[in-house]
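re: ur question from yesterday

yeah so i grabbed the chain u mentioned. its 476 aa long if i counted rite. heres the sequnce exactly as i have it in my notes:
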Amino acid sequence: MTHAATTPATGPFPQGFLWGGATAANQVEGAYAEGGKGLSIQDVMPRGITEQPTEGPTPDNLKQTAIDFYNRYAEDIALFAEMGFKVYRFSIAWSRIFPNGDDAQPNEEGLAFYGRVLDELEKHGIEPMVTISHYETPLNLARGYGGWTNRQLIGFYERYCRVLFERFGNRVKYWLTFNEINSVLHEPFMSGGIPSPRAELTDTDLYQAIHHELVASARATRLAREIMPAAKVGCMILALPVYPLTPSPDDVVRTMDTAHASYAFGDIHCRGAYPGYLLRYFRDNGIDLDITDQDREDLKNTVDFVSFSYYMSICESADPDVEKGPGNIMGGVPNPTLEASEWGWQIDPQGLRVVMNDYWERWQKPLFVVENGIGAKDVLVEADGGLTVEDDYRIDYLNDHLVQVREAIADGVEVLGYTAWGCIDVVSASTAQLSKRYGFIYVDRDDDGSGTLNRYRKKSFGWYQEVISSNGAALR
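ran it thru and got these structure tokens back, copy pasting raw so excuse formatting
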């Protein structure tokens, strides 16, 4: 099949718009103890964030094999190319490069693996986008150092980045420093490698860890400009538009405060300093951080673009009697006007347009939608071309969200691209299930670990192929 990249782009999206998909190493690679890889925090999270971490690896952790991308990457990248991907966002497993995180020298086998992945992407004309740290802090840095609460991790991360930039800097243009950096507030072990239970952590602990990540991100940005000046470095934040539940000014102020908790990360990455509202929050809540003059200087190394994930919106209310979720992973008050996925995540396509306009007007940096998708329990069925999944629900969800990306572009927002989350089925980060499927490609593996690992094109595969080849003109 002719690769869609050879087809002249037409349609409502900009020329050169980067269509593609996204995954994370710990959710697809498997081979958790192969090729010199050390343990990461994911190797002790067999139930994702739903249970406490185990002492060591256990055989019921689906991520040990995941979908075996480590051995099947060439087959999978060929399928991405068949869909017409212009870009593939993937992460490098830190513990594949530095098995303990604090090693003096990198693991050459790990570097060679990612070199082979880049070879395949180049063969198919797919632009790589690399997430440097995607929820996989080396376990030794978590348990031996206390994760990102420890300032020493800045140096370990900088050494890791230098190795990546020197090895792959002439092959990778787009880099993301930390995945969903604002999620440390909600999931300190998964996001920040902090081993203490959330209930035992103070706000000072959490914001100090975040400060260290922000400094590390800024140093990586500076280092990237030194080593590979043509590259683009982006932050990656979890986008969460917040609506007042009622027109009450109290609800509006509560909404503003909740929104600030996410804005802060983009403000620091894009403006190079802590915003006044966050400094006030620190004062009002007795949060006293260790911030050095060098830290303040480092933070001035601002990003080139803003990337983000988008799955849901929330409401806020100042009324203490209003019931908060369950459901939305980020808390908040459920929106009575919205439907929800099987996992309780409320579906709000227009929220994507809202947040894109919001970010663009606030930061005036190009945007990149690097995660968006819906988890669902797919059923493999017989069809004329073999086995497939009739996933019209996924097509509807993605179509409706991409229409809102199109609307944001029409509003004047500069958008670099869109990578659908879990473009091939992955092990869920939140629940560590494979039955919570996101992909255009079905992977024959079940939650009990059984299955052939064979790949099958879902109905959405052909739909996305058409969307890409038409540069969005095929959207309804």
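noticed a couple things. DSSP finds 14 helices and 14 strands in the chain. also The two ends are 25 Å apart (CA to CA).
anyway ttyl
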